[in-house]
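hey can u check if this looks right to u? its 125 residues, i copy pasted from the old doc so theres a chance i mangled smth
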Amino acid sequence: MTGWTSDELDGIEAADELKIASRRTDGRLGTPVTIWVVRLGGDLCVRSVNGRHGAWFQGIQDRHEGRILAGGLEKDVTFVESDEHRDEEIDSVYQRKYRRYGPNIVGSIVTAEARSATIKLLPRE
């Protein structure tokens, strides 16, 4: 599996939102959901504001595959649960990127519940 290109990372990082759709067990894509995305170096991370009980998070658990659309890019991806201990770093990037929404709104994506549902997006061939 190859990584993201610089152009892909730059485009997605510049996008305010990302549309994410999980691939169902029958292979069809689910309905896209709009979420926030952050970049940490060569990684793209997303979180479920509703934690592990969030609908889109639950939807990725069967196949761990789907599609994203952001920054003019549409790409099939693999969803990998983040087991790295980068919560504070990811929190900081979320807070910096989305600060214009205010602490109450941004605060919802940096809770322990949201942290428990941190996903790395890996591009698929």
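The mean pLDDT is 94.
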